Amino acid sequence: MNEQLLVRYRKYARTDEAYAVAFVKTHLVEARGHWVDPVNFRRYEMSQDVLHFRYVEGGLFKRRLRPVYPPESDFMSNGRFDEARYALVTRAITWEAAHKDIEQQKSGKVRPLKFEVTGVSYDRNKENQNFFVDDAPPEIKELAKNLNDRTNPLWDRALKYANGPQYVYEIRSAKVIKSVA
Questions:
Q1: Which letter does DSSP use for residue 162 in this model?
Q2: For 35, which of 19, 91, 98, 155 could close a Cys bridge (C-beta 3.0–4.6 Å)?
């Protein structure tokens, strides 16, 4: 196996482009059987989840090249199959085949199917006026009558019932845009 390919793939796998491809594969049914070529994308920077994107736009190319994988027997050592290494190698080979195939199709003036996937992140509690969550004990909810008086010893455990922002992420649209030839 070409170690330089693995190094290049590992570097690529940590990029926003790689996450955009995974995002599209997850949320766009039409991506099945196609290579995903993200052209324009933007992540939610504040999100901990790398698959939270505001939008991803690009093209879907039919898979013409088929990657050739080494046999699993090449990944046996002491009678044990190194599944993690095999998965890494097959992903790197697939990544290389995808880029070659996309470049060949682009140079051959093949028009991809255009796609657009958009998502949104919002605070579910934005409109909530209650200081404490609904299932807080009654004695804790009673503290909300005077939030400036923190002398009550219940405040030591009350803040764990405080209503904080609750961010939710959802897909707004996932569509293939029919390109006119």
A1: B
A2: 98
